[in-house]
């Protein structure tokens, strides 16, 4: 149990286009999902917290108009990179909180590799 | 605010030798601590976690870690390294509730034959 999927796993796009990444919790409901970005040979940096039915909370320095997050249901959050540029190329990883434990365990998706040409 | 410091961005050990990856945390509240492993071009895999109870935690692939509150540490060990252990390892901390994991910068483990 507690599987999180991401789609697509890899995407290559031209500069200026928008890319949507989906994060789904397959066998549990997640009121909260998190989006992380990982540059090559670096750690995971939290981009935003996605709460079902409300606006996402962005970390300092993350442009909310560029990285649009929609958490429309208890099993799906989407991240749209708008007008992507080469510097947005990165590994994007989502995680979903499964409620019910004191520490609200977090389960990670397999990640999406975005390459912007 | 919570933070994690991983000492050593790169650790190299011989096959069969002891693996020790260091992690120190800073937290204003009792922390929940995690170790993840990431193989090249892959996502994160949970190795082990400390939430409550026994301070020595055993995980997958023969890894274990000990929570030492007095030292604010959560070092990861494995008695005998295997070639397949070569990967990036991340220590992470979180608070209770719907709070995100905060990751250390990671330690790349190389295993030499």
Topology:
The complex is a heterodimer of chains A (117) and B (113).
Chain A: E1 4-7, E2 10-13, E3 19-25, E4 32-38, E5 44-51, E6 57-58, E7 67-73, E8 76-81, E9 90-97, E10 106-108, E11 112-116
Parallel strand pairs in A: 2-11
Antiparallel strand pairs in A: 1-3, 3-8, 4-5, 4-9, 5-6, 7-8, 9-10, 9-11
Chain B: E1 3-7, E2 10-14, E3 19-26, E4 32-38, E5 44-50, E6 56-58, E7 64-68, E8 73-78, E9 87-94, E10 102-103, E11 107-112
Parallel strand pairs in B: 2-11
Antiparallel strand pairs in B: 1-3, 3-8, 4-5, 4-9, 6-7, 7-8, 9-10, 9-11
Describe the 3D structure.
The complex is a heterodimer of chains A (117) and B (113). With 117 residues, chain A is mainly beta. Chain A is built from no helices and eleven strands. Chain B is an all-beta fold. Chain B contains no helices and eleven strands. In chain B, a hairpin with a 5-residue loop joins strand 6 (56-58) and strand 7 (64-68). The mean pLDDT of chain B is 93. Classes of the chains: A mainly beta (117), B mainly beta (113). The A-B interface holds A 31-32, 34, 42-46, 49, 51, 93, 95, 97, 99, 101-104, 106, 108-111, 113 and B 32, 36, 41-44, 51-52, 90, 94, 96-106.
Largest interface: A-B, 24 and 21 residues
**Unreliable sequence segments of chain A:** none
| Helix-strand topology string of chain A | EEEEEEEEEEE
User: How large is the radius of gyration of chain B?
Assistant: 13 Å
Termini distance of chain A?
A: 37 Å
Helical region count of chain A? Answer: 0
List its traits.
heterodimer; A: 117 residues; mainly beta; seven-stranded mixed β-sheet; four-stranded antiparallel β-sheet; 0% helix; 52% strand; globular; B: 113 residues; six-stranded mixed β-sheet; five-stranded antiparallel β-sheet
Outline of this structure?
The complex is a heterodimer of chains A (117) and B (113). Chain A has 117 residues and is an all-beta fold.
